[in-house]
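Researcher: We are triaging several targets before committing to wet-lab work. For this one, the compound of interest is flavin mononucleotide. I'm pasting the protein sequence and the ligand SMILES. What I need is the predicted three-dimensional arrangement of the protein with the ligand bound, expressed as structure tokens, so it can go straight into our comparison scripts without reformatting.
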Amino acid sequence: MARLQPETSDHLPEIDVEEFRKVVRSRRSIRRFTAEPLPDRILDDCLELAMLAPNSSNLQPWEFYVVRTPAVRQQLATACLGQNAAKTAPVLIGIVARTNTWRQNSQRNLDEWPGDKRPRIVEKYYSRVAPLHYNQGPFGLLGMVKKAASSVIGLRRPVPRGPYSSCEMKVWAAKSTALAAENLMLALRAHGYDSCPMEGFDDCRVRRILGVPKDGNVIMVLAAGRQADNGIYHQQYRFDPSDFIHQL
Ligand SMILES: Cc1cc2nc3c(=O)[nH]c(=O)nc-3n(C[C@H](O)[C@H](O)[C@H](O)COP(=O)(O)O)c2cc1C
């Protein structure tokens, strides 16, 4: 897979907001797909764009399990409770958030830092701060100590309040991974393809089929392909934005 050239601040492309709006507005959760295959080169591009999502400390806690093989797809569709989206899509992608890759990815941030010289602050962050911040210790004891310490120090000044438990680590990893999932859905749409995110699945079976490591959490299974004529079940609607947007 060819790696994307990252945009630099002195080389930003002109952006047409109407094109972006088209992508966002035409994305729908598609419940039936045609049998048309999703070309590898398009899916590869979409996955690379997914990985450009913002993510916590650039620790990239996501993984994508791409299932094309019909027999495995069928098993996965059954584990997705036989949903039509899963049964008809030519590709299913298990989107997984990992809670234990932060250590190796801290090291990768040091090893793969772009440019000649790593700034000292970067060095300090990935070699000292991150290993303390994300490490919850055996039985979560270090997390408890950090939580207690931050509660006391936090009486006087702002302090980080987590993640300080395995549960909070799951939320931590899921946040970044969900952003990558959205990038992936929008990238598919920009290429003229469609998707359906699904959390309606049997987690135990999906994990087994995909071979997800112990610290992985399947946050969604994404069905992807070309929407069928009857793929949209109803008109899109949202509640009144003023009920959800708070101006301070
Ligand atoms: C985390 C998540 C889980 C979802 N799970 C399912 C699912 O299991 N099955 C399904 O048909 N749609 C699922 N959806 C799609 C939502 O139902 C859909 O996004 C919502 O109704 C709004 O419709 P729209 O995506 O077409 O705008 C899920 C969406 C998200 C973000």
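Researcher: Any quick observations?
Model: The pocket of flavin mononucleotide is lined by residues 28-29, 31, 83, 85, 196-200, 220, 236 (CB under 6 Å).
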